[in-house]
């Protein structure tokens, strides 16, 4: 059970015992994989574990539809992809991934998730500014912020 604010969430129709079993089995699986990796029986690296954690949280979200599972799911999965494809030199990818996780919360939780648009926009703007700076040699952050301000002024309600 997770408590956020004054509301508590459980994993779907699971009771506390079922949640403990799911969590315990997942930790045992990760422990076995770590043990086999350390014994050189199975060749696993950090990206495998970040992908496993990401997929686990995303699958839980798909089955349970609990918005807070999107944040670690997308972040772990995205970092795993960065490590897998050796994209660590593109430091701007990290705020983009985190921004996408908040954007996913905003898009999936229309009533409750309005708060998530603020960190999503900020992180995506910072990441996209780094992306443009890396590939074009110039930062477009100023232009993006001006366009965002014009958009907010032209919008009747938010």
Report on the architecture of this protein.
- α2 packs antiparallel against α3 and α3 runs antiparallel to α4.
- The chain starts with a strand and ends with a helix.
- It is built from 6 helices and 2 strands; from the N terminus they run ββαααααα.
- Helices cover 68% and strands 4% of the residues.
- It has 2 domains: 88 residues, no CATH class; 69 residues, no CATH class.
- The protein has a two-stranded antiparallel ribbon with strand order 1-2.
- The chain is flat, with a radius of gyration of 19 Å.
- By secondary structure, the protein is mainly alpha-helical.
Question: What's a concise summary of this model?
Answer:
The protein has helices at 16-38, 46-64, 70-84, 93-108, 117-136, 141-154, and strands at residues 2-4, 7-9. It has 158 residues and is mainly alpha-helical. The relative contact order is 0.08.
Query: How widely separated are the two ends?
Result: 32 Å
Q: How much is the radius of gyration in Å?
A: 19 Å
- What share of residues are in beta strands? under 5%
Q: If strands are numbered along the chain, what order do they take across the biggest sheet? A: 1-2
Number of helical stretches of at least 4 residues: 6
State the helicity in percent bands.
55-70%
Which descriptor suits the 3D outline?
flat
Total DSSP E strands: 2
Q: How many structural domains are formed by the residues?
A: 2
Mean pLDDT: 81
Low-pLDDT runs of 5+ residues are none
> Largest beta sheet, briefly?
2 strands, antiparallel
Oligomer: single chain
Structural class: mainly alpha
H-E order: EEHHHHHH
């Amino acid at each position: 059970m997770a408590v956020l604010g004054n509301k508590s969430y459980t994993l779907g129709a699971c009771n506390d015992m079922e949640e403990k079993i799911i969590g315990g089995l997942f930790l045992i699986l990760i422990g076995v994989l770590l043990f086999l990796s350390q014994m050189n029986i199975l060749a696993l690296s950090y990206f495998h574990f970040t992908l496993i954690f990401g997929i686990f949280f995303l699958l839980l979200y798909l089955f349970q539809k609990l918005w807070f599972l999107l944040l670690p799911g997308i972040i772990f999965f995205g970092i795993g992809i960065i490590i897998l494809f050796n994209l660590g030199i593109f430091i701007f990818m990290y705020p983009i991934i985190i921004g996408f996780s908040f954007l996913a919360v905003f898009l999936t939780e229309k009533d409750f998730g309005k708060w998530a648009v603020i960190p999503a926009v900020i992180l995506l703007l910072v990441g996209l500014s780094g992306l443009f700076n890396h590939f074009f040699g110039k930062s477009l952050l100023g232009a993006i912020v001006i366009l965002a301000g014009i958009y907010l002024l032209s919008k009747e309600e938010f």
